[in-house]
Design a protein that fits this description.
- This is DUF2690 domain-containing protein.
- The chain has about 300 residues and is of the alpha+beta class.
- It has nine helices and nine strands.
- About 40% of the residues lie in helices and about 15% in strands.
- Among the domains are: about 10-85, 434 Repressor (Amino-terminal Domain), CATH 1.10.260; about 185-295, Sandwich (Immunoglobulin-like).
- It is globular.
Length: about 300
Amino acid sequence: MTRTAPSPERVRLAAALRELKERTGLSLAGLAERTAYSKSSWDRYLGGKALPPRQAVQDLCRLAREPDGRCLALWEIAESGWSGRATDGASSSTGAGTRTGAGTGTAPAPAPDPDPAATPPPPQPPPEGTRTGRKRAVMAVLASVCAVGVATVAAALLVLPHDEAEPQSSRSASPVSSTPGPRCRGNACEGRDPRHMKCRDADSLAVRRTATGAWLELHYSEKCGAGWARTWGTRIGDRLEMTAGGPLRSADIADDVDAESYVMTDMAATRPGVTLRACLLAAAGGKKECVSAPLEGQ
């Protein structure tokens, strides 16, 4: 059996879903626990090997706290190509155009029996009606194909990020990196979300499990020059706090989505010699438990 490569539309959808998965901080097994789809199914969806159900896309957007409009638009384009709906219109239009052409044309009148003694007349062009019918059929086919192509390209440009819609010539002028660098550094990271700032080189400085079963962890990114705290396994009403010698950063466990996934504080700019400290205050007047770690000098 020959395995066909995924379409460009499905590749773009899979890339968007992988980015959402990274934001959630969940593994494939974690996604399987929190959705109706298995670990192997998520592996196929995120790898572009299979088109995910619409509900799976919505569930991942919910876990990543991302509005589902863009991803559902990408899914619609990928699903349209996969199911063949994008070409159905062209096929039906082609058939209709051919039938129209045949109907408008008139068959040439039979030629009289040739006179053996006369010189054979030159071949006559087909009647005007036949040429007109064929021309209309061709024009109908071209119009339907162009309409489908223009609609697909327009929809893709609307939902793609700005950098994907740029001409190839402008993108080739700058080197492409598979691991883009962080989007902030030092004070520019103060109060920013680490998931959106691409601080992916973070080190885990300290981890602690609290009496309620929740986990508490301190992270530090050398490239970003900032630290933050994260927690998981929490309960609604818990509160996460973190400080790095400056303003207090906090995050509340507000709903079931928070309790079922990672919750992080915003970043705090820091430097070697500063001690990072994170605390989890359990809901309903529970005990406050903390973990701290000094940032060693470089």
